[in-house]
């Protein structure tokens, strides 16, 4: 199959396939007239790369899986190097989950403190003699207001 068909069947673009070729992940055989030629094994290889990328693996992390497939294994998961990449990725994910859990706990604690402070303000505002709720008074905007004109008016007004 040609590159366009491989891209379509693998759910990617020809540009991506050319990039995979340039970094050595996807070998390209050439026909007599110079076209790239691919087979079902190449399709399986590209699908393996895409699946791993969907899981968050970087392209370099897919290399052991690609090499496993190229060496004749029925899937890229069965080689020791692939298993090691899975183990490292799981450890990385566990670390990320732990950090996110810690951040979640901190945000929850901050929310609880903020809610307590808000409740205390509301309680103080409703108790006689308690602290009054802060108020803001807004003066409507008057586009005809000219501050320099009011200064002139104050200076020219006779004082009595």
UniProtKB/TrEMBL annotation:
For the keyword Transferase, the answer is: no
Residue ranges of domain HTH merR-type in the record: 1-68
Q: Which organism is it from?
A: Streptomyces himastatinicus ATCC 53653
Extract the signal peptide range: none
InterPro entries tied to this protein: DNA-bd_dom_put_sf, MerR-type_HTH_dom, MerR_fam
Its lineage opens with: Bacteria, Bacillati, Actinomycetota, Actinomycetes, Kitasatosporales
Any one GO MF annotation of this record = DNA-binding transcription factor activity
Protein name per the record = MerR family transcriptional regulator
Enumerate the UniProt keywords alphabetically: DNA-binding, Transcription, Transcription regulation
Locate the region Disordered.
Answer: 124-160
